[in-house]
Amino acid sequence: MNSWHTRTFCSALVVAFLALLAPLSAQAQHGDIDFDRLMQADGVTVVYLSPSMLLQSNIRIGGNDMRSPSLRGLIRAVNSVYIFSSSEAAGINLMRSMFAPITQSTKVYEQLFFVKEGQRTMRFVAKMKGNETNDLYLLVDAPDEYVAISFLGNFTRKQIESAMKQSEHSGRNMPSKNRRN
Amino acid sequence: MIRNERTKMSKEQLTALLDKFYDGSTSPEEELVLYLKLLDEPEGSPYQTDLKVLEGLMNGAALVSHETAPSTRRVLHFTPKVRRWAVAAAVPLLIGVGTYNFLHRRGGETSFLNQRALHQEEVDRHAAMAFSLLDDCLEAGSTNCTKAQNVLNEASGYIEASYQQLDPVMDYNMFEWQTLGFYE
To answer: What are the chain B neighbours of A145 within 8 Å (beta carbons)?
Structure first.
C-alpha cells in the first residue's frame, strides 16, 4: 500500500468520525432536555412512538368512548411521544435533575396544573408560545418511580383547557397508582 | 441611418443590393440593411430564398463569433490533494449519516424502546398507557380543582354569615350608650 492510499485511508477515518459526531451533537438537545443523555443512561427506559405508527394507534384507540371528545381532540393533535421512566434510585434522581428546568422555570414553561396525592406529584407543563405550544410534558414523580411523557404536536391553549374541563365531567374513578402495569 | 435606408429602399435598389451581396462586395452594414429589408417582405415573396441565405450567413457569423471569443468560464481543477479528500469524504460520510439516521430516527417511521424497534401492537399498548395516564392526571387535576373550589365556596359562605351577624353591632352608634340601669 503506497503513501497515497495510506493518506486516503486516514483521511477517510477522520471524515467518518466527524460525520458521525456532527449530527449527534446537533440533535442531542430537545429544547432544554438532553434526550440523548437520558437514552444512554442506565436504568432509564426510553420509548419513542413515531408519527406514522402513532397515527395508526390513534385510528385504533380513537373510538374509546371512555375519553371526552376534547381529550380525543388533544390526543389527535399529538404527532409523536417520548416516554421516559425509571424505577431505580439513580435513574429517578437523574430524571428529576434533567426535568428540573421544566418544573422550576416559569418564564419559558407554564405549569398547567399540579396535583399532589400523598407522596406522588403530577405536573402538566407546556412550553407556551403565546396561545400555542408544540411541547406538552406530563411528569409523575413518586418515591419508587418517575415517569416523564413528552407529547410533541401542535396544541392550542383553548384545546388544552377544554380537555381539562371535559375531564372533570367524565365521571371516571380516581387515578390508580398501578394503572400502567 | 439604417432605419432610413430600409424605408427609402425601392425594389430596384433591393435588387442591386442583392446582386452586390452575391458578388461578395457588400459591407456588414449593407448586409444588415439588406437582411432587415428582406424581413419586411411578405410570405410568398420571391426574395424568401435570399432571406434564408442571409439568415444562414448571420447564424454562421454568430457561431464563429462565439467560438473565437475568449472563454470566461472558470474551470475548477482538482489537485491531487483535493481529490484525495473528496474521495475520502464521500463514502464514509454517506455511511455515517445513513447509520446515524437508522439508529437515531427522530420523527421517522420507526418506534423504539431502548434502541429496539417496536411493533405496531407494542406501540398501541404504549400509546394507550400514555394517553390513559394523561386522562387520569387531567381528571385528577380537575377533581382536586373542584374540591378546592368547593372548600373556597364554603369558606366564603362562613365569612358572609359572620358579616351578617356583625351587622347589628356595626350599626350601633357608640356615642349613644344606653345603660343597663343597674346603677340608676
So the answer is: none
